Amino acid sequence: MEKRLGVLTSGGDAPGMNAAVRAVVRTGLELGATVYAIYEGYRGMIRGGDFIRAIGWNDVGGILHRGGTVIGTARSRKFLTRDGRRQAAYNLVRQGIDRLVVIGGDGSLTGAHILRQEWPELLAELVAQGELSQEEADQHAYLSVVGIVGSIDNDMVGTDMTIGVDTALHRIVDAIDAISSTAASHQRTFVVEVMGRRCGYLALMGALASGADWVLIPESPPNLDDWEEKMCDILRKGREAGRRDSIVVVAEGAIDRKGNPISSQYVKEVLEDHLGEDVRVTVLGHVQRGGSPSAYDRILSTLLGAAAAKAAVEATPESEALLIGVEDNQIVQRPLMECVKLSHEVNEAIQRLDFQRAMELRGRAFQRSFRILRTLVRAMPHPLVPGQRRLRIAILNAGGPAPGMNSAVRAAVRLSVDKGHIPLGVHRGFQGLISGDIAELDWMSVNGWTPMGGAELGTSRTIPTGSDFYAIARNLEAYQIDAILMIGGWAGYQSVLRLYRERRNFPSFNIPMVCLPASINNNLPGARLSVGSDTALNSIVEAVDKIKQSAVASNRCFIVEVMGRYCGYLALMSALASGAERVYLHEEGVKLKDLEKDIALLVDGFRHGKRLGLMIRNERANPLYTTSFIAALFEEEGGDLFDVRQSVLGHLQQGGNPSPFDRNLATRLAARAIELLEEACIHAEEEPEAACIGLQRGETAMTPLHEIPRQLDERYQRPRKQWWLALRPIARILAQPAPGFLRAMGEELHL
Ligand code: ADP
Q1: Ligand 1, atom 27: closest residue by C-alpha
Q2: DSSP 8-state secondary structure symbol assigned to residue 659
Q3: Tell me: the pLDDT tens digits for 696-736?
Q4: C-alpha–C-alpha distance, residues 262 and 254, integer Å
Q5: What distance in angstroms lies between residue 547's CA and the mean position of ligand 1's atoms?
Q6: Domains (range + CATH), the chain
Q7: Which of 374, 17, 332, 9 is nearest to 165 (CA)?
Q8: pTM more than 0.85
Q9: Which residues sit opposite 247 in a β-bridge?
Q10: Pocket, ligand 1, Cβ cutoff 6 A
């Protein structure tokens, strides 16, 4: 029997909802279902008629980049009543819909769960009232429900991230960056209020990413009765130490230990009283919800939407209501109501003033971020413990510049100074280690580095050889360096590997060394994501949005060339985020027959009303089939149907201020790196630790350096196994011109 699937967005809107709708619709159609859009959430479900309409493949074209939700969202009082839900059930059955994908917050998902539970009774009532026939009711005896969390609050258990959170963080961090620069000019203090009635995620991560000086969140109120004194004391000391601005971030639901609200106005008054200076309040409000979704939100929503549609199409009467979420970077299915219940537990814990439980439920990553923030905001390090060993830690960048390098250096410097160690900044990467361009860094020397793009320490692609090793050995001894933290890309990894291999010849190389992945290419071993790649992805996606807009009037195909060297990460992910129909990767190779197929696809598309084509090509996808070659080929073969333009994005991909994600990843990895180096120095083993760190399965994991060569494809400078290659089928399926099109052309594609 034909499967009919309804999709709705409900409750507060969130950027990324459109990407989810697009993925649900196209995946549903690809799997053979008929998909209905239910406009204006539950309100539309109750009104029925035109509010519930079949939706086609092309109806969801060109919406990936749009904020909000094109199928509308609403709050519905009527749906809270049984009568309202009976009317909703009637409208669904009338259209033959018994599968729902609901995109919304916990309220909307609870509503869907209740509808599903009541469904058999509601149908029985409708039959008894003569509104539905028994046959109709029997045909749709069960309602399958799959939920995706669309909410900028990130307050749901069962998913690490909800749709819209990353974009909201972008808005917050942009705003605080802007406020910081004006605050610094006037030596002013600002209080910034961000959304989050019951969840401090946005406030905490926003503060961490913008280098703010104090944060107030509902889950962990300040634990002193005189927290006001403490906060002012820290801000005052910061000023004395040379900071020009002070920023306090307040979550809208911030409370004190007794449960009394702490308003941003109250914080302002406290600061004015204690510091005797002008304090300004900025309430960010709805800008946090608005605007075009970030690259991450587009990709996350696409993956969640595809998985949700698949789960809904495959659901059987026995299936429970599911939540599709992301945990440790994997798309997961969880029982919907259990997640909603656990999420409510956090709120209940806060209401009971059981803050320990609230923090526990938020998870380890949240707790760790809070601890790191508390150290980073201090104006001054902890006093030294008498007799403590003070390590001298060399910190350097190497490889191409990656946005977020400065955030990593700042965190590494502050966290090591805080523990009593002495960080040494090495200028221009290994070149500086060779020439002895090395200087001590202190707490304030990295002030204000968090939001800065580029690499303040300088970086270079120099890989030491021959006599360089002697020079490095001499400098390590001269500066009495106990450990090395290299923050960089491929050239940096290669350099550290070389020092490691030369340990037998140069005893001074027998010190702990850690590589922290920072490269826009995301081609480094032992890490799912490298610092800088999220910023580059956002830069690409923004540029592609503009390129697409430039072509409104004409039939045009763009070939956009992106960086990555031999690694196709940026190409594939930007294709997923921008809806490009084709992506050329070195990992897959480019064959003439592929290009012929692509031309056939384009010709067919433009013949049937298509206006815009978009192909993304990795810069080294194929040495002969270059971007210009492909553009020329398509231009010639397109004839009068369409013209072709190429766009090589170039260095804008390496620049820009780091995204919130990159800043926070950098900080988190730097914290772990310093811990590792410290442990290794204390244990002082004969063969001291040399390792790469990176996020793996949501945790900061470590890979010993001796295992690295086996994991690498040296020739093409990328890991042998690349997790993101598994996302190719989804990108391909969602970007085809019509459901089943690629399969009809002989491609085997599995979701
Ligand atoms: P969000 O989904 O963003 O949390 P709301 O809590 O406002 O937003 O919920 C959106 C809509 O979902 C409500 O207007 C209502 O129609 C429906 N809803 C919320 N909670 C329930 C509930 N307990 N029972 C039935 N429907 C609900």
Answers
A1: 111
A2: P
A3: 877 889 999 999 999 999 999 999 999 999 999 999 999 98
A4: 5
A5: 39
A6: 4-162+292-327 (3.40.50.450), 165-288 (3.40.50.460), 392-531+659-715 (3.40.50.450), 533-656+729-744 (3.40.50.460)
A7: 17
A8: yes
A9: 190
A10: 10-12, 42, 75-76, 79-80, 104-108, 110-111, 114, 151
